[in-house]
Amino acid sequence: MINRKACLIAAVGGVWAFTAAAWAAEPASQIPTTGEKPAGAPGEVTMPWGTFKLAPRIADKIAKHEKINYVFSYQGSGIPLFSPQYAAGFKYGCQAGNAIYPLNCTSIAPVQTNPNEQISQIEAKLAAGQIDCISIEPTTSDETTAIVNKLMAQGIPAFTAGVTSRGHEFTNFTQLPPKEGATAAEVVLKWMADTHTDLKVFAVSGGDPAEFWAQGRMKGFREAIQKAVPGAVFVNTEANGLNTSYEPGKTFDNYKAFFSAHPDLQFMENVDIGAEHADRAIRELNRVGKTFTIGWNVSKGQLDAIDAGIQVALLDQRWPDQAAFGGPACAQFLGNGTILGNTQTLKAVTKEGTAEARAQLNSIMSSGN
After folding, report:
1. CATH of the domain at 291
2. What is the C-alpha separation between 156 and 132, in angstroms, rounded?
3. Separation CA 98–CA 201 (nearest Å)
4. Range of the domain at 265
């Protein structure tokens, strides 16, 4: 169990280390403490898309060393697995930012994913003059482009995290989908070699397979597997990945139907939070040892399946880091004129690492106690 009040944040080796004992399983985040210091920052910065000019009211606050209003907007506060980790990360980020420059921190989010409501919440804060710097976790790569560009045009520094974005933000702190897919393939290929398991028939799936990030993960995985495994067959590809939904019961049913329709399938890639339901379907259909999986993000169900030999690994996007990024990013930019870069990489959790991952997950999920 983690006590937030006892968490001390220290700069260690160029990253922010969460030194509370409960964070021992993952002693350092990937948020950098140094970055680019462009000429004129934070007052005026030349970017590839044009010139950013800090709003005079914010510049006045900085000159007086007054607290700035930092806002974090994310997809949803009531999403299983995701939301508690993002909430914990936001609080760590606020602590990290306040160690650099004084912040008033606020997080806003719909209960469930609702892009229109998310934008409305940001617009309301903007209209009330309550945003001096913001970090946004978009729902899709284009959903927040207009509001990000509007904020930057008004001289309000904006950052995005968690989902690839095409706006004018200073930094998009997230994973790179094709590279993620290739990483997943590397993990599976190593497991195949280590366990002398010969896999030939693969498939891909996700809760929203049409999204840019989902397709990137699927394509990167498929291309790397087909390059390394002669005769590898994909019963579907990123062009028609299995749509599992994000609803647990529906996801389980979709996997069960898909596996039943493809009795020769040996491996399923899930690119978001649904792998544990594929694992359940494998158990129910008595396909343990015949069909294997890999998935994204940390959950108890996936860790259990890895320990049971059904799931090869999970790929941790480091959700707390994504949520934490905005605090130090805003503080570094406004306090020091520094733009922090995107240093995110996936962490693969295999059977050897499940105990540590489980301890970290438990500490995060109980951090409100």
Report:
1. 3.40.50.2300
2. 6
3. 51
4. 177-316
Same domain, 117 and 223: no
**Tens-place pLDDT, residues 11-43:** 222 333 333 333 333 445 789 999 999 999 999
362 pLDDT band, cuts 50/70/90, is: confident
Q: Tokens 């980790």, residue?
A: 85
From the CB of residue 231, how many other CB atoms can be counted at a distance below 10 Å?
Answer: 7
Element (H, E) at 204: strand 201-206
- Fill in the DSSP letter of residue 315: E
Distances (CA, A) of 45 to 42, 53, 150, 208, 337: 7, 7, 16, 37, 9
Per-residue pLDDT reduced to its tens digit, 206-246: 999 998 889 999 999 999 999 999 999 999 999 999 999 98
User: End-to-end alpha-carbon separation of the chain, Å?
Assistant: 7
On whether residue 98 sits in a domain, the answer given is yes
Cβ contact 170:149 at 8 Å: no
Name the region of 87 (left: φ>0; alpha: ψ -120 to 50; beta: rest): alpha
Would you state the structure tokens that stand for residue 72, as one six-digit string? 């974090």
Q: Residue 129 CA to chain centroid, in angstroms?
A: 29
Spatial separation of the C-alpha atoms in residues 210 and 159, rounded to whole Å: 25
CB neighbour class for 369 (10 Å; exposed up to 12, middle 13-18, buried from 19): exposed
Q: Do 326 and 106 contact (CB within 8 A), yes or no?
A: no
The gap from C-alpha 266 to its chain's centroid, in whole angstroms, comes to 28
Q: Are residues 169 and 188 in the same domain?
A: no
Q: To which residue do tokens 């015949």 refer?
A: 290
Residue 303 burial (CB < 10 Å; 0-12/13-18/19+)?
Answer: buried
The torsion defined by the Cα of 50, 325, 58 and 158, in degrees rounded to 10, comes to 30
